[in-house]
Each structure stands twice: as C-alpha cells, then as structure tokens.
Amino acid sequence: MKIGIVGANGYGGVELIRYLVNHPYVEIKLLASHSSNGNSIVEQYPHLQGILEMNISELNIEDVKENIDVLFFATPSGVSKELIPQYIEAGIKIIDLSGDLRLQDGSLYEGWYKNTPAPPFALDKAIYGLTELNRELIKEATLVANPGCYPTATLLGLIPALQHKLIDGNSIVIDGKSGISGAGRKTSATTHYSEINENVKAYKLGKHQHIPEIEQIVSQIGNENITVTFSTHLVPMTRGIMCTMYANLKEPINESKVISLYEDYYKDDYFVRIRKGGTWPATKEVTGSNFCDIGITVDERTNKLIIVAVIDNVVKGAAGQAIQNLNVMYGWDEKTGLQTTPLFP
Amino acid sequence: MKIGIVGANGYGGVELIRYLVNHPYVEIKLLASHSSNGNSIVEQYPHLQGILEMNISELNIEDVKENIDVLFFATPSGVSKELIPQYIEAGIKIIDLSGDLRLQDGSLYEGWYKNTPAPPFALDKAIYGLTELNRELIKEATLVANPGCYPTATLLGLIPALQHKLIDGNSIVIDGKSGISGAGRKTSATTHYSEINENVKAYKLGKHQHIPEIEQIVSQIGNENITVTFSTHLVPMTRGIMCTMYANLKEPINESKVISLYEDYYKDDYFVRIRKGGTWPATKEVTGSNFCDIGITVDERTNKLIIVAVIDNVVKGAAGQAIQNLNVMYGWDEKTGLQTTPLFP
Amino acid sequence: MKIGIVGANGYGGVELIRYLVNHPYVEIKLLASHSSNGNSIVEQYPHLQGILEMNISELNIEDVKENIDVLFFATPSGVSKELIPQYIEAGIKIIDLSGDLRLQDGSLYEGWYKNTPAPPFALDKAIYGLTELNRELIKEATLVANPGCYPTATLLGLIPALQHKLIDGNSIVIDGKSGISGAGRKTSATTHYSEINENVKAYKLGKHQHIPEIEQIVSQIGNENITVTFSTHLVPMTRGIMCTMYANLKEPINESKVISLYEDYYKDDYFVRIRKGGTWPATKEVTGSNFCDIGITVDERTNKLIIVAVIDNVVKGAAGQAIQNLNVMYGWDEKTGLQTTPLFP
Amino acid sequence: MKIGIVGANGYGGVELIRYLVNHPYVEIKLLASHSSNGNSIVEQYPHLQGILEMNISELNIEDVKENIDVLFFATPSGVSKELIPQYIEAGIKIIDLSGDLRLQDGSLYEGWYKNTPAPPFALDKAIYGLTELNRELIKEATLVANPGCYPTATLLGLIPALQHKLIDGNSIVIDGKSGISGAGRKTSATTHYSEINENVKAYKLGKHQHIPEIEQIVSQIGNENITVTFSTHLVPMTRGIMCTMYANLKEPINESKVISLYEDYYKDDYFVRIRKGGTWPATKEVTGSNFCDIGITVDERTNKLIIVAVIDNVVKGAAGQAIQNLNVMYGWDEKTGLQTTPLFP
C-alpha cells in the first residue's frame, strides 16, 4: 500500500516516518512540503540517514492520483481544509492530523480557529479518529480527522465515566500539562530552550482550540450539552501529555469499582492500560509508544472522581493514532507497525 | 543578631545560608545537623567554598542559650516537634520550616502525618507564618510555623477571592505542580534523574499532608468549614511550584474587576505581584527570588474563577519566607536581605 | 531460541526486554535478579504493563540448563565473573554486558576494578563483542564480553584512523560526555535530579575503568603499546554518549579524504553512519537506536584530527550491541529486531 | 554613578539589570535597544515586574552625554564597533560585552568574524577585561573589552600553568561545553527546546571565533606564538560553561604541587576558587554567581596536566565580569554588588 505524507518535515510528519519505515504493509512513496521541496529529508533530520533518504517534493495532485493510496496530512491549522476537497474527489483516502476536520459544526471552527471552515461535504465525510471510540466507523472511512493530543488523553480518560453516568459532565475540570514538541518545529519565543527549561508556564486558559473538540465528544457520550473547564500548561520536557481530570460523582462509588469498570471498558483495547488502585501513570511510561495509561482515584472527602491520563503527544496524540486508524481502515491488526515498547528510562 | 540553623545540610538549610550570608543584621553562628556533625558544610556543598566555611555540629542547648538569638529548624517532619519545646522554654526565638507546628488541631497532624503531634502549648504559641496574612501576629511572635510550599502558593492565590466572597469555597480544585527540590536531598527512586527527567508524574492525589494546612486557613478566611480537592504532580525541573486553582464564582464578575481587587489586596505586599489580564505567570519568573506571582482569569463559559500562582518552593515556599518572617519579628524592613532579582533565564 | 536475562531489573536488563519482546526469533524465558525475585517486572517498570508481565526469579543453574539457550548478564561489576564459569561448563551461551570479561589481562582488571579477575579459562574464551571489529570471531563465540559504552563510541571513532595509520596513537585525547542512565538505577547523590539537572560535572579524570579496555584495542589495532588520555563528564540528559577525540596527524591530510576512508571502512556496517564534512552528530540523532554516528574534521591550524562519535549508551553501548552480537552468533541478519528509528525529537 | 545599557533586552543586558538594581553606587538611567524601543522592559521580561519598570528607548548620543557616565554594550557582534567611536570621543566610559574590541589585531577580527574591524584608535584604547589578569590596566581604562565566555573559563584555567611554564603551549587542547543561553535570545533551530533537550551537540569545531581571543592571551603569557585546539559543544542546560583542558607537562610534577601554585596565584582573587585534589568543579556550583571554579589533575600515565574550569557564562562570562570591571575602574571593592551565592540546587 502506497502512502504519502504532506507536511513531512514537521514533527508529526517525521514521527509518521519513524513508524512507517517499519510497517510491513506500507511503502512511503511521497514526502511533500511547501517549504522545503527539493531537499532530502536527511538534511533536516540527520537521524534518518540510512533509514529514509528521500527527497521532499511539492504536492501535485496528478502524481498523487497515480502513485498514492493514502495521504497523511501533518500540516498546520488551515492548510488541509484547502487542499483536501480535491483529493477526496480524486478518491484518495485521507488521514488528517490537523484540527481542520474535527469539528462537525463549521461555526465552531470559525469561532475557535479564527478561520473559515472546511466545506460541509468534507466535514460530513470526516470520521473523528479516536480509534477506541469510533473503530467501527473508521473501518468504512475514507477521510479520518485524527484527534488532537489533549482531546485524545482527555476523552480516553473521561469516556468510561460518562458512559456509566458516574459523573456530572458540567462539573468537569481538565488540567492539561504538555511537553514542548506539541508546539511544533517552528521557532518562536515560546519554544526557546533557555526560557522553557526549568519552567512551568500556563497558557491559553479557557481559550484553547481543543475545548470544542472535547465538548463535542463528551456531549455526544453524555447525551447532553456539556461545557468543560480546560486549562493548559507547558512543562519542560519534549514529549508527553498528562491530563488530570476532576468531576463530581453523581453517587458515591468505591474506587476499586470504578477501576473495574474502566478495565472492563477497555478490555479489548491494547493501547489503553489501566493502572492498579493507588498508583498513577507518568508520561515517561508511554514515551515513544502508542499507549494511553490511565490512573483513577475517588476523593471521598470531596466526592470527586480524579482521573489521570497520559500519552506521548507525538504518538497516540498524533502519528501513532493516525497509523492505528490506517490499520483499522485496511482491516489489519490494529497494532501493526506500532508495537514499540516505551523508551524507559 | 545571632542565628543558628538546625538541619543545615538539607536544601532548606542551605538556602537559608544563601540569603543569610548577605543579610546585614544577621550573623550565622551555628550550623547543626545530626547526620553530618563535625564536617565543614563546604564538603557537602562545594558551592559555598569561600562563602561560609563553617563546621556542622551537634545541636546542644547550652551552646544555643549562650550564643543564639533565633533558631531556624529546617528539619524533616517529626524532628522539630521533639526538640522545640525545650528551646521555647529557654527563651530562644524559633522559626520552624517543617510541618510540625502548622496544624493547630493536633489530631489533624496525627491523621495526616501519621505521628504524634507537638505538645499543645507549642501549638498554641506557634503563629502560622504566611507573612502577608499574619504580619501583625508575627511581629509579636516568638515561635513561627513557616508555611508549606504548596500552601503558600495556594493561599496567596485564594485569599483575596475568599475575602471578597467571590467564590464557593467547597468548589475549590487545586492542581499543584512542583519541581523536584521539594522532595529534599535524600536519595530515592523518586528523585533519580533518569526517571524524573522527561517525565510528569502524579502523586498522593487527594492524600497530600498539605491539604489540612490549606483547609485550616481557607476555612478561617471563608468563615465556614471548607474541604478542598488538591492534587500534586512532579515536573522535571529543580525549583518552582505552580498551583492552578479553579472555583465556582458566586456571581458573574468581570475579569478586570477581579484583577483590581487582587492588586488592591496586595498593594502593600512587595513580594506578591499580580499579572495583567490575559497574561500568566511562569515559575521561572520567580526562580531564586521571594516573589509570588499571580495570574487570574474568569472562564465565562463555565462561570469559574481560575487562578495561577507561582513561587520558588525553596524561597517563598521555605527559606525566603522564613527570613521575611524574621525581618517582621525584628521590625526590620521586610525585604532586608531578600531582594534577589529572579534568575532569568 | 530461548533466552534469559540476569540483572533484569537494571537499565541494561530492561532495555534488552524492550528489544527482545519484538525480536522474531527469540523468546524471553527467564528474568533473574537477586534483589527482587518473586515480583513481576511490571511492579518496578510499569511501562511494561501488557508487554511483558513476567515474574523475576532467583537464578538457578538447573532451570537454566533445561530452559535456556543464551543467557545475558546485565549485572554490576564483579557479579558475572563469579557466576559465569559454571554456565560456560554447562554449555550455555553467554553475552556479558558487564566489564568482568573484557580485559584479557587479569592483572589489569585487578588494578582498575579493584577486584579479583575472572578465571583465565573464561577470559580466554571471551570474545570482545565490538561487532564491527570482531564480527568473524563472534560468529563462532559461545562467550561474548560486550563492550563498555565509552569504549564503543571511542573505538568506532578511532579504529579507521589507526588502521590507516593517520594518527599518532599516544597523542590521543578522549573527552567523554555521558547521560545519567550510564550510572544505573541505583540511587545515589550523583544521580539525584536536583543536583544533576542544569549541571555538567567532571568525574574520574584519567581514572575511569574504561581506559584499559580502550587501550587494549587501540594497542592491538595500532600494533604498539598505546596510552590514552581519557576524561569523563556527566551531562544533564538521560541517554547518550558523545566522545570527542583529538589526535596528532602523522601527515597532513585533507578532511574529505579522511571522511572517504571512514565511509569506505564502514561501508558494510549498517549501524555506523558517517556524517558529511562540516556537519557533526548530536546524541539525540541516535537516541533509542543502535546507531553510532561519526563526524570528522581536520584542524589544519594544529594538525590534529578531531573525531566526534555518538551512541545511545543503553543501546549500542549496552543492550543493542548485545543483541547485535546474538544475531551474529546465530547467523541471523545483524539488524534483526534492532531496526528502531531514533526517537527524534 | 549613572549607567546605561545598550542591548538591554538580550540576556547579557537583562543580567546586567539583575545585578545593577542592587548595586549600591549605581543608578540605571537608560535601557536602549533598536528593536524594542518604547516598550517597558517588563513586557519582555515579566520577572522584572516591581523591580525595574523602565521603558526601552532608542540610543541617542545627546541624551547619553547629558545623563550617563558609563555605557555597557551588550549587543550582538558588529554593533558596538560602529557605535562606540563617537561615544569614546564624547568622553563616555564604555564596557563592551561583545567581541568587537577584543582582538588587538584587526585582521584577525576580519578573518574570524567576517566583518570589518573597529577603527585602530578604538582597538588601541580597549583594555581586555579579564579582571584577574589586567586589574591594574583596568583601573585606568575608559574602554574595556569584556572577555568572551569560553575565553574567561579557558584563560583563568591556563594562565597559572603558563606563567609557571609547566606546560607546552602548543599542545593545549580545550574541550568546551556550554549551556544554551550563550546563544542569546534570538530564536533559531539551534535553540529550539525540543531539539536541544536530551541532546549534546558539537559545533564549530576548530572554527569558533573565541579561538583568536584565547590565542592572543596565551601567546602573550607564554611569550611565544601559541596555537590551540579548541572545540565547542552545546549541552542541555541554560547556564554554565565548562572547559576541560589538556596539555603536555614540560617536566613531571606532583598534582598537589600544581594545586598549590594555583592557590597561590589566585590567593587575592575572591572570584577564583581552586578545588582540593581529587575533586572537580561542576557548573551548578557557580550558577548565578561570578565565581570561576577550577579543578586540576596530573595524568601521570600520559604526562598531561588536565584542568577543569567552570563559570556561569552569563555572569563571570558576561555581565558579572563587566560589573567587576566597573568596580575596578571606579576604585570600589571588586565584589560590590556581585556577592550572590550560587543558586544550589
């Protein structure tokens, strides 16, 4: 199966490469990027020397039609919504890692992303690619909107509690902590080593564009209009996201009972691992892997459920989940090419 | 004025030294430690070469009576409660950086610290040393219980909102993020570089011994029994604490109005700085200084007040505040010896 | 093929697990450790949940004889030399990751390791497992002494220059920089996060036990008795070693000529990559992979050859090279199970 | 005494501010910068809130003549050489932190900096501001060329050995390791957190512009033309430089004898500290301070002297030494305003 990567020279693109060069059923046929066409990917990423010595080229629809079955878009916000429609029409399967196709309601995109939305037919076609939630729909999909990094950790952490109606949806507070790779490779004051190192920094409190994406799914699961409190923090590490989530319990419930419900909910999901009671996941325990690890406690003093979910933002939060979705679309074992053990220490 | 430091070879002790060697009215006359008496502090801390080449000795009450006016205890939990009573009786002024004298209700200490509490007369005598809150009481104090690091950031962030009755006390959620120095110098698996680096780790969710300390003060301010949700996370940096706090607003209120109330509340407090609307503090902006920086937003969508407070846990969260209290006790300018500019970058 | 890991709960052991769980021809049948027998490896390493849920047991020669073909020793210095003799006699193939069998001259071991050496028959039998150097010998080996981390980077960097007699062996200066994982999992003051972070620390200058290991091989290649200057530094990162090497050129030579000689020397060695002139490797470009990347320059002003070699100390410097040797011993493709792309960023 | 800072919004400038706000004899009257004139320094550096709330303005010679006694230039290469001549003529005292006035031979500047040199009268006037070396000359200076960060550590490490003719100057190899703040605040791929973190990176081997600066002084001390081998590496930390230096001993000499010579050489230099035999300095032991710590060993096996020198590149390697020079110029105690204890941990 032949694939192409648009935005190949960003962190999402290069992580797709890391996994896909070892995927048994896939051949990388195209690395596309507007900014660096013509150069070898190795010039920008010397770690790929001897692994994938391929030139980056300008995206061209005729070439794609001829040579590519599936196109990954690992492009910044606002790019894929312009390009994708013609590729849909050309019958190319697409997995979009950007936020352009995740919000079914175009006006939400307009409000949060300050940009015109993708055309309605594209939004209609797009399946939200949280694999564990939408596996059945993804099997038939030709266009997948791969989830954001924060929403992936948040939703995998909240869905079982919402499904089992354990918590009051509108009481949810999500405190997100992210490594710096989430900000991409573009240089800026906020990614400068000297200022990020030895520093925790709050940003976009209550204003992050992942908020409507989370609300869309929790409202669907909770079967009501849910508004969440969501805040984000940069922590001094490269990879990893932790979301700590707080919600009021509808009824008092035993911690071990909640853990059992979660274990049961995810019993067929290889990439979701539930921690034993009294222990908590750490981001390093999933680094470089597609796992989402979840720890749970009940704070009896305040009648709150507290959930901690961790992922590697570049893997389960981006490239890994995209490949998981590719595997599902093609009927391959979901783990194909993705069984990297976390890099510890 | 002659001071002594008990627990001189821990991080709290060595930070007291950092400031006190430059304090114009203070002379360090004693470094005491059980574990390393007889050696020079420079052997354990070569950064003090040429600055304070002093031997560490065993604590001895007769020596103290003769030579010391004020004794700082920078000892682990459970030590100072045993030692302090005799020094109180001997008329020595004491500033205790540990948690042993912070909880007025001994049974709370017993429950959270799993240890017998200090004798009642000591608890009665101890003034809780959150300088900005208790400045008047500290002026007359002979025994100060210096606040914990998390409570310092949390309380400075919450007190104005509680004083102005803006928020529902029982809805408070505090998400704490701390650098590793908070765990002290003792080696353990949880301070091992290879496992802390590139890692965010949740710990003691809903079970941290700083919870009753926070509740004691917010209940007093809020004039009702308040229970808080409090969780803690280790982030890969040495110094710094950030507490992100969420609470339900009693009435809708404008963000800039809240900021004004905070600015006004702290207008005479040099070490508390309120950020402008739309900006957020970062821990590095207070590193190596005694400041507590606070950012505030109103999340109108969920009717929550969100407060972010940062301190250097070793300074305002320990040694710096202890010296601030010393200054208050002696009627000196509160900033004496403490005007270090944050180390940035 | 059935393997066992002795010292499974150290960083070398857990890295062997990371690779071997995905090795197509290998089955992990035994995790042994003296200190933690009886527990599941997952209790100590939660990142292995769902990947290898296996108990750690006490090493027992009868079990090994029955169930194991190859035994990896990832034990601290001084352990394998005591245990290995009986396993050799029992016909078990052994790959020893410790320093116990690397020095052919037992008296050198005695001098540098301050311990009695392994018995002569074991030292005679042991093949030094620098795969690129000794591939032919390893094919027939039943006992492999896997190289140290610093020697691996150093020797791969120096051997071509010595083979081509470009440099004066006795002028060699090696400046080594290592991440902290090289110090193992044992807690100590020198691995404490708060003191390692934001710190570069020199240690064991001219006294590191890897010196005789390096000298043994460079003397053999250079065909004369060579003494090297070797110093080591801890840098604040978890994985990675860089060795910067300086040597006097015997004759002036063009940089591009040297690079060609290196490229040619390693043309059949997948895991050694030579950088283009004017560019230098960085440790992150090999993190999590078995590559050794080498950059070369000629400093014409001082007539010196400068070589920079980087490896991941836990992979090519330990577990990865051990598996590479296993592959060679069994006639499998050397890359089997080892083709992980470096984790970048 | 009234001072101004040109390039106030770079790291050198902001570090000058950190110290000068607490300097008893100095008043900051001007913050100048081309790129951000008109804004408050606090907008770019919130850590200065309440400490120095001053606007940044465009540099204007008439204002300077009227209001300023001493002007610090903390500007990028190539700026001060254009601006300084007119300020010299106007009788303003100048301390230049850039490399523009360090090389007495203009043609060397041209070759290494690829730029036209400063006018000869300025180069003639400029005193090289390595305080410990040129203290007497600095007392009379009106123009000081403050040393580079690498040269400061290197020269303080080498000078006593050269003075005592212990080593062969042309055998010197200097292996430099620097934190990232040395690259300044400008954003670039080489300062991106995600790529610097967990990474050691070699750069500019044998080509760094600090080479002629080092050679100028060691040749002067050694009284012969000396060429040095000098290489540089970025290590993942914000502040700190370590230079490890290797040189052939002319005659065998005892380690403790060398240490005594060094102690004696620096006995009146408060900011240079010599470590005891068998111990080595670490960069963190000088962080945030103006110290240069030096460790020494004799490698008897190879007859080499090995010297390790560490500084905080932003303090002793830039702003701190500049203020030390100011103190010397004005006859104040050299330590005035500079007695910050290193920030440890």
From TrEMBL, chains A, B, C, D:
MF-aspect GO terms: N-acetyl-gamma-glutamyl-phosphate reductase activity; NAD binding; NADP+ binding
Gene from which this protein is expressed: argC
Residues the record marks as active site: C149
Family the UniProt entry places it in: Belongs to the NAGSA dehydrogenase family. Type 1 subfamily.
Places the protein is found: Cytoplasm
Species of the source: Sutcliffiella cohnii
Function: Catalyzes the NADPH-dependent reduction of N-acetyl-5-glutamyl phosphate to yield N-acetyl-L-glutamate 5-semialdehyde.
EC id: 1.2.1.38
The Semialdehyde dehydrogenase NAD-binding domain, residue ranges: 2-141
Lineage top rank: taxon: Bacteria
Keyword Amino-acid biosynthesis: yes
Oxidoreductase as UniProt keyword: yes
Region forming the signal peptide: none
Catalytic activity: N-acetyl-L-glutamate 5-semialdehyde + phosphate + NADP(+) = N-acetyl-L-glutamyl 5-phosphate + NADPH + H(+)
GO cellular component, one term: cytoplasm
Protein name per its UniProtKB record: N-acetyl-gamma-glutamyl-phosphate reductase
Key words, A-Z: Amino-acid biosynthesis, Arginine biosynthesis, Cytoplasm, NADP, Oxidoreductase
Alphabetical GO biological process terms: L-arginine biosynthetic process
Main location (coarse class): cytoplasm
Pathway in which the depicted protein is active: Amino-acid biosynthesis; L-arginine biosynthesis; N(2)-acetyl-L-ornithine from L-glutamate: step 3/4
NCBIfam families associated with the record: argC
